[in-house]
Amino acid sequence: MTKKKLTYNEAVSEIEEILQLIENEELDVDELSAKVKRVSALIKTCKDKLHKTEEEVEKILKDIED
């Protein structure tokens, strides 16, 4: 079974959903830890995608200048 890679927007949407659950106190203590870990992983995914995109854009701009 292969895991589908999340897009940036999908990751952000999932983070927002989890934050909404936390803000509305809809999670019990057992779920809270798992959800916080998931948000942490999603944030890392988003940061990695942003850094990769930034590097790609900088490379493209550099190529244009040359």
Secondary structural class: mainly alpha
Number of helices: 2
Helix content: over 70%
Low-confidence stretches: none
**H-E order:** HH
Ends distance:
44 Å
Task: Estimate the mean pLDDT confidence.
Answer: 92
Give a quick set of tags describing it.
66 residues; mainly alpha; 80% helix
Write the layout of secondary structure elements.
Layout: H1 8-23, H2 29-65
Helix pairs in contact: 1-2
Can you put this structure into words, describing what you see?
- This protein is mainly alpha-helical and 66 residues long.
- The protein has one domain (8-65).
- It is built from 2 helices and no strands.
- The chain is elongated, with a radius of gyration of 17 Å.
Concise overview:
This protein is mainly α and 66 residues long.
